[in-house]
Sequence to fold (574 residues):
Amino acid sequence: MNNINRNNRWMPLIIAVSIILGIIIGTFFANRYAGNRLNIINTSSNKLSDLLHIIDDQYVDTVDIADIVEQSMPKILEELDPHSTYITAKDAKTAHEDLKGSFCGVGVQFVIREDTVRITGIIKGGPSEKVGLLAGDKLVSVDGKPYVGKVVTNEETMHRLRGDEGTKVKLGILRHGHKKPLYFTVVRGDIPIKSIDATYMINDQLGYVKIKSFGETTYAELLVALAELQQEDFNGLVIDLRGNGGGYLSAAIQMVNEFLPKNKLIVYTQGRRSHREEYRSDGRGSYQHIPLIVLIDETSASAAEIFSGAIQDNDRGVIVGRRSFGKGLVQQPIEFSDGSMIHLTIARYYTPSGRCIQKPYVKGQSKDYEMDIITRYERGEFFSQDSIHQTGEKYHTGIGRTVYGGGGIMPDYFVAEDTTAFTPYYSECFTKGVIAQFCFEYTDNNRKELSAFDNAADMEKHLRRKSIMDKFIRYADTKGIIRRNNMILRSKPLLERAVYGSIIYNMLEMNDYMQYLNHRDPTIEKAVELFKNKQTTPTLHGQENTPSTDTQKKKRAYCPAARTAQHLCNIQTA
Fold:
């Protein structure tokens, strides 16, 4: 009886506790699932989640909560730093293809002209070459449906032509000399993306390698390139990282390792939740003693700066060009269940001397950050080293040379941007796409004649004999570009470089095109001079960093030099 009374005494308390627990659990699941189409709410105290609930339940109009989240994600990450970004599920698949080294597609290069896809090149060994597609073909239908007009964009074209390996796509093609469309069924396949644009001998001793990014296959490509130069008995090496926006940290580490003796620090990373992690050379590199020159400019960033910073801080070679971009933040890709992903900054990377080369930024002001290159241009940094004011902390290389943190890699030898040929006439031709359009049309109309030339030098001679520049000026007249003879004369070197270069790129390989661009390039000439004078090994008192001539300090509208045909012509690959 006593036991029964004792149990009855505790019963009300047990019931009360059970009710309270039930309320808590019920409230939790009600908050988590009621009216929530996102499944992102963890607790009712989550202010952001509460806001979404309130909007979903009480806003005057029906809203798409998922769309609000999609629009908010980039803005939230923008408040952290300029390099933490959000990538939608639609874009995530293609976001890293350039760095992966391949994608699945039909194997064509194309541009869009007058709302029509024009095929400019066929990938050798690719699916399109196998079925007989040709450069100069116009794409007018895909899978039986017309594909011309305003619907035609680079993104839509790649969406239609790329796809899963083994799938088929039927292409309708208009070809010169044929009145009716031709139809080709192409089986999509693996299309390689090379991250090394060119490998050749500048002269009988100095080799050259142009690296456009640091991807999964770049290290293997570098080994192949170096083996090719070995066959040519090269005694010095120029690695061109101008325009290289970076890529994978691991690729940069593998590549630097080829040039450093054992146990040299290459880079280290460290963050609030990321302990310091060092990467050192293993001494197995095959090119530890070859004279080395690295070229950089204001668009060399991230992994390109890791590479050049490791070479500079270890006094392994000389850096030539202009101050690099200044990206010293490490991003980690994090994928969501719907296929979207973020690149979240988790650490900073530091060069061997201990400097972080990340340039200053203000959280939430990414536009100012993106305008930094134009700001540099306007204050004369591209033309005179005197205009560069490095205020970061001082560090020292292995032999004691002074280097600075907080603003990119400063080259050992500064080479000014030559803007003497920049005029409003050239700028208008460039920005309105007149150069690209002329070059494509000329190539398309003279493809048979141009195919007789297999190198850039002979093709350039041919183009000069054909008075191509006169033809271009007349063409520009028809496109509404006002003829200004003094400006045309002044811009002649730039116009020739752009026009000849684009036609050469349209007809020949990237290797040929790069050789044409590098001919008479001041930075290449400086590299050749340093190699000739045996100045490729840094010394404590041998830093030049000599200010350049200040003849170009007059401000002009920013107009980038036409360094690549892809940039000039907006060529895409699918």
